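Case study 2.
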Amino acid sequence: MKFDFERQPGKRIIIKGKRKSKFIDISDVVFLQRDGCYTIFNLVNEDKVAVSKQLKHFEEELERLGFLKANYNTLINARYIGSLFSNHYRRVIKIQNKEIKISRRRNYLFKKTLKGIKEIGAKLIEKTNIAL
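Prediction:
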């Protein structure tokens, strides 16, 4: 899967409530979690927005914009992955001081993704001629 995070800024998602609708920038969404029939959007400023739609409703659209499914309950914006480590034979991602477990079947995808993100970062540094 190729990630192009430049497509995220400016894109918005509409969250409809009973009485009002709310627009959220895709780049502000850190991860989504399933909670029964609700989906909870966790935002950069650590706000949470609950929606009465299932996670799979958002999954297809957001995967094209750089989101990855970590497990059955969680969809993560790959831009905000802080680290990937093992914890008692389980792979865990750290985002905003929260630990999210990765399912066994998705472990390979996350390793591959992190390698791709690292390469994208190296290309951006080359383009801007910034030395670290």
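Confidence is low (pLDDT under 50) at residues 120-132.
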